[in-house]
Each structure stands twice: as structure tokens, then as C-alpha cells.
Amino acid sequence: MAGEVVGWLQILVAGEDVHGCHGSHIEICGNEQFYLGRDAELCRYTWCDDLTISRLHLRIHCILYEQDPISDISPFLYATDLSANGTYLKKSNVEYAASQDDGVLMGRKNTFLLDAGDELHISENITLIYISRSPVKTIKLTPTQEVERQMFSARYLVTSRMLGAGGYGKVLVGVHQQTQRQLACKIVRLDEIAAKASRLPTADRKKHVSSSRERCFREFDILKDLSHPNIISVEKVFCSRDNIYIFQELITGGDLFSFLEFKGGRLNCMQTAAIVYQVLKGIEYLHRKNVVHRDLKPDNILMSSLEAGARVVITDFGNARFIPDKTSQPNKYQRMFSYVGTLEYAAPEIHRANPTIPVERGYSKSVDMWSIGALTATVLSGDHLFTDRTHPDYDRNAQRVIVSLAAVCNLSVLDDHHHPLWKSVGPQPKDFIRKLLVLREEDRMTASNALAHPWFTCYAKDVEEVYKRSIADWKPHQKNHRLVEDINKLSLHSVTNGASAVRENTNSYLHGMQDSQGTASSLGRGKLIHSPANQLSHNSAAPADTYNNRPDSREGFVESAESFNVVSNHHSQQECLDHRPPFMGIRLENDLVQVSETPTEEYEYPKLDNKDGCVVDQMYHPEHRKDKRPQQKTLKRKNVSVLVPETPPKLSPKYARLKR
């Protein structure tokens, strides 16, 4: 649903502003989509007399994440060229090659994120200039990052436009210089790991730094071998001692949660089926590749556009794991024990709360299928199945309430014909949910079983046709043997060029640090929340009667690098220059970073014990963990909760009620 005005497109005719004339500006509202062209019925603004303009020339859509007091950042405005004759984009940012001369040809069906001052030349006489109601805040990189980005800037540009932020870094707009395609560039700060580990006892620091740094590399280590239209793709990675720069495809439609807001809070059965079908396609592919996602939720499902039948993309592989196949590696570990995921979507066995699975058994890849069931229920109803806000203990210990309800798995609400949220949902999607939200993991549908459910097979031909159209523009990921490069081995000429940038930026950067000291942030669904009271505390112990107050319930509270595939609002980060640990976790050789085919942490374990035919590892098995999980503080409806790898799950109270 459209919000208030967030900007305008100023219209220039033959280079002159038509100020004072009717329709000299085109208003842009948050969370809306419209067309420009010659078709008076379909377009918000038309130029009927200019035959060089197509009937549908441009699609404009605006993504505005949750109108809350913190959201003082300009919205994300995207323009898609649909024209036959083409549209030229001239960027206001002088770093872009697209800022030169007349700009660059956008290309049919290509989408670009606009900055204030960008010019869209839709014909020889008509130019549109984007004017943002609120200025876009520019992001200052650290002096080291300024040097490093200059070393590969001839191939990939890192701009100052913020897309997201998290515990160890930021997500900025990147650009592939040769094609001028926009990408998402995640900058993961490895030097932050040592800084955050400094609060640990001295004896534990080295172990936690090593494991946290390894987790920083795990996401692209998994993604590098994947190529599927419903899985986010990674294009290029640059590594140094202090930073990792990960360039990924930029998905321009926002995440599923924003899409629900755009659609009024919930979707009907057919709309939901089209999205869930694509999620299942992606998960089926992952499970065939022996990859478990472990954090499926609306935040981590991206939409390529706001159009019906958009491509759906699974993102955020920071919690993902590679599980070797039993037939190929029978002696490797097949089950997991880490506390990951988001409470409302996590299977109860992740929290040792599933009565049908012994605690020492851990969990399997079927946790992804439970998450799809919970996600489907949220999309259909606009609420969570296992979140009872009327429970007397909810305000005091919401985590315990949610986990307890999931462990009981009472789905009787689906049969309540008078329930305001479920009475309009048909029997097939309800049956689909019932066959996924099953406590006995062996009874849950697999991804392949779920794709064969009557909800999809009753309209098999139509569903498949919609799917083919959704992925028609996707191109398979090409295997890149130079995917990862060591920045330290790039040309010395680039180093020299970059050094001057550091000298110019150091003083202003250090001055800006004073404004960002002591800040805390959490990334989720593309939102950043500056509200420590609503995040899990790493300093306070849980009450004695809570489910998470056990010696085995926390696997090291040092936050690892969060995944930043989703778009989020900007929030200043505390910058740290004092901790620069040696480069660890990968081997550098011949200008390439050699990454193992599978994360060694996942399955190369010291043999301590043998239970049920499985090798037990010291890091993951609950009997060998000594630390405790922290306590959830107060909750707030719109707050984001995001789970970082190997830390206890947080709530996502921002989903409290999607239906408004």
C-alpha cells in the first residue's frame, strides 16, 4: 500500500524545466509502483505526442521499509527500462562511468537503483530528474577500506550508497564497471572479530576468533558452487587481512515481508502458492546439493519486482551448512546441533524442545521444511501460528512461550471456521501446512514431496507456466575459477593510486567516529533497529526457570559476520582500527584465495564418542558446551531480530501483526 510522498521526478522538456505547468513533477510515494509512457490507461504520466516513447516506457517502484522513527533514510527507488528505443541513465555520482557524457543505455528489462539527482533520458526531448525528499546519507569507509576499494575499482566500484548494515560490516551498492550493472557489495570486517572477542576470557579468545573468521567465509564458500534461479548468486569476492568484499546480484523488489506490506499484509491462496512454489524449488535444489539453509523466513526471501509472478530468491546463507551425503562420505557427521534460525520459523528440535527427538540426536535438514510451513502460514494469515501474545508469560519470556507452543504443535486454529484470519483460507494450503508442521521429522514432506502436493498439482500446468515466466530472464551462474582474489596481491600501481585517498579521508573519518561510538545494531529483513532493549543481551543471565538456562545452550556468544543480502536502513557503526589479527581461514596462492569445496568446520570433527552410528564433535555436541544462552529483554512490535551464526535465536516481533 502506498505511503506518503517521498520524492519527485522533475520533468525537463528540451532541457527546460516546465515549472509552473500542469504536471511538471511526478510524485513518488513509499511502497508503490507505476508506469510512465504513452498509454493513458496504464501510465501515471503520459507523453502521447512523442512517438519515440514506448507505450510502457519505464516502470518505477519504491521500496520503503517500515515507517518507524529510525527510518530517516531515503527510500529505495528503482527504474526499469521497458522501452523499445531505450533509456539513458546519467548518474549524479561522479564515481560511476554512467555519470559521463549522456550516461549509459539501461537495457530492456534492466533495473537500476536511483540516487538523488540521477537523470533518465527517455527521449531526445524528455528528461526526468529524481529529487528525493530526504537526502541520502553517504557512508564513510575506514581508511583501510578506502585503499582497498581503489585496488579493484577498475573492475568493481564500491559506492557510498548504503543498502544494509550489521554487526561486522555494511552492504553498499556496487557496480561492475564494464557493464555498469549494479550489485550488492557486502563488506565484512574481519578486524571487528578480534574487537568483539576482547570481552571474552583470554583463554577463549583465540578459539572464538578462529571460528568466527571461518564463519565469515562460509557463506560465499557455499554459494560459489550453486547456480539456481531461486538462489542468490555471488559474482566476485576480494579478501584482505581486515575485510572481505562480496559482490552479489542486486535483487530490486525488496524482501517478502515488504511485499506483504505492499499487498496489504497478507496474500491470497494463489499468490502464496506462486511464491512458496519457487521457495520449494530453491530448497529442493539446495537439499540435493546437501546444503541446509537453517534460517528461512520472509526476511530472507527476496522478490525481483513488485509484479505478480516475480522471481523469488532465497538469500542470507550465513547460517547455512553443507552436510556430506551418507553414501559418499558415510563417516562424516549428518546431524547438527547449533542454535540458529529465528524463533517463529525454527523447528522445535533446534531448541532441544521436540518431544519426538532425543536431545542428543540434534536435527536434520528437515528443519528447512518446518520453516517453509511456518512461513506459508505467515504469508496466508499475516501472523504467526505459535505466537500467543495473550499468554500470561509472553511479555516476561516470549521465547519460552513460542518454543513451548511449537513443541506442542497444536494446529486446531486451521479448522476454526470463524477465525478472522483462517476462515477464508482453502483446504489445500491448510493441508500443505499440516504436512510440514509435523513433530516427527521423518513424517514431514521433503521438498520434492511438497512440490507434488495437490495445492500445486491441481493447477500443475498453470503453476509451471507462471514459474517459467518468472525465471525467463535469469541466466545460469558461470563457474568462476578466479572468484576470490587476495587484495594484497593486486597491482602495486593500484596501491599507489589508492594511498592518496586514505590520506584525504583519515582525518574526517576519525572525526566521524565520535558520533558512532557505542552504537548497537541488528540486521533483519533489510531493517536496522537501534534499540538495545529489544535485543538479546549477552551480559545478563536468563531466569532459572527458562528453557535456555542450561550449560549446553550457547555455542559461543561472539557474533559472527552477518549476511547482508537483504536491503536495510543505514545505521552508523562503531569503527575499530586497533584490532588487526593475522589473516586466517584461507590459503592465498597465485592471486587466488583457495577455498575448500566444503566448510571443514562442518564435518571434520575430532572423534570423542559414537552415538547412534554418528561421530560426535566437541564444538557442536550439546554435552560439551559449557556456556549459557542470554536472556531476551523487552519486546517491541516493529523491532527486527536477526540471528547470527552459532548464537541463540532471537524473536522477530516486527512480524507481530502484518494485517493492518
Automatic annotation (TrEMBL):
<feature type="domain" description="Protein kinase">
    <location>
        <begin position="157"/>
        <end position="456"/>
    </location>
</feature>
<protein>
    <submittedName>
        <fullName>Uncharacterized protein</fullName>
    </submittedName>
</protein>
<dbReference type="InterPro" id="IPR000719">
    <property type="entry name" value="Prot_kinase_dom"/>
</dbReference>
<dbReference type="InterPro" id="IPR011009">
    <property type="entry name" value="Kinase-like_dom_sf"/>
</dbReference>
<dbReference type="InterPro" id="IPR017441">
    <property type="entry name" value="Protein_kinase_ATP_BS"/>
</dbReference>
<dbReference type="GO" id="GO:0004672">
    <property type="term" value="F:protein kinase activity"/>
</dbReference>
<dbReference type="InterPro" id="IPR008984">
    <property type="entry name" value="SMAD_FHA_dom_sf"/>
</dbReference>
<feature type="domain" description="FHA">
    <location>
        <begin position="34"/>
        <end position="94"/>
    </location>
</feature>
<dbReference type="InterPro" id="IPR000253">
    <property type="entry name" value="FHA_dom"/>
</dbReference>
<dbReference type="Pfam" id="PF00069">
    <property type="entry name" value="Pkinase"/>
</dbReference>
<keyword id="KW-0547">Nucleotide-binding</keyword>
<feature type="region of interest" description="Disordered">
    <location>
        <begin position="533"/>
        <end position="554"/>
    </location>
</feature>
<comment type="similarity">
    <text>Belongs to the protein kinase superfamily. CAMK Ser/Thr protein kinase family. CHEK2 subfamily.</text>
</comment>
<feature type="region of interest" description="Disordered">
    <location>
        <begin position="622"/>
        <end position="660"/>
    </location>
</feature>
<feature type="binding site">
    <location>
        <position position="196"/>
    </location>
    <ligand>
        <name>ATP</name>
    </ligand>
</feature>
<dbReference type="InterPro" id="IPR008271">
    <property type="entry name" value="Ser/Thr_kinase_AS"/>
</dbReference>
<feature type="compositionally biased region" description="Polar residues">
    <location>
        <begin position="533"/>
        <end position="550"/>
    </location>
</feature>
<keyword id="KW-0067">ATP-binding</keyword>
<dbReference type="GO" id="GO:0005524">
    <property type="term" value="F:ATP binding"/>
</dbReference>
